[in-house]
Input
Amino acid sequence: MCSDTQRVSTTLCQYPGCSKPVWQDPDGSFSSFCGNTHRFAMAVNPRAESQMCKNCNVKPVYIENGRAHDFCGRRCAVAYNNGGSQSSQVGNPSPSTAATSTSICIIPGCNKAAYVDTDGISTKFCSNRHRSAAVRQGVAEACLQCKTMPTLEIGGRQSDFCSRRCSTTALDKAPVILEVPNGHKLYQDVANQFNVNWKHPTATPKILKLWKVYGARDINDRFSRYQLEVERRTGIQGANTRRRFHGTIRACRLGDTPQDSALCNLSSCNMCNIIQSSFQLARAGERTNFGRFGAGIYTSATSSKANDYVTGSASPNRAMLINDVVMGKTVKLTTTNTMLTQPPTGYDAVIGEPGGDLNYDECIVYNNDAIRVSFLIIYK
Output
């Protein structure tokens, strides 16, 4: 593996089987990979060196959203599942048996084998009829896009979608919000975080709706790239990325009902502008004209504190953003320092600790790429 200083424009991507040149960073240095797809794949699965296609054993496996499939493409997947061949070299196949399911359809009373799709992933059901029945019966969580088929489990993690088609349909429309049903584990997890962290001496509001926010691809790419850079620099797994609350102005009814799912174009609607274009340091202090820890992007682990900044007259309901924040190495401060434009040297974020000038916590980052919106919560 080349060091950062040894890589040049003709250095090839580190991902096995890739012959593309490495990508050049904005600072002039060269990455180890041709792009985010292979960078993420190696981050998720560092042992990708051994992951060649199970059928042809020549090309590397296909990577989708950081997950390594078993095959290089659909043709090899179909061939393998139909009793195709594995080979160490092209033209020199060795016999193989078709991929088979070892699990049983999870619909109560059905003893048929679960179907294995062309990517080698078990769907947990014997047929599409039982897949849709599982959603209706509450046996499985519904895809956030089509709402009729159950979500897939990929690499031990539950996807938001039932298929690549639904995933592509949703992400191609980004920025977009999709409603999370209250029976989903994701809903329960986010709702619990909101309720447990309501610390003001007022009644905890009732959650009415939860929406998953899918930002534009370039915003996600910049966030993921920054997250990996901080993780690499600090050695902190996941770059200490946490979910944090942010209250702002909503000048529309976004999220109130299923019909209110389109972002508005009002310049006064900070919420829709943030979902559309993410957070912007250039707008720091525009609303309050005061930042206790300087010109940064402010969030809090305390939902009731973020609620203090929620306003809007277009709806009787209130709305709050929940965000992924790359905190990296943090420094805790208890006294006001309005002159900050970046964290103290050696740190990635500032934590405003209660006990000095603060009653409730704050988290401040000073880089647009250190935060992305994940959820929109509607409450009353």
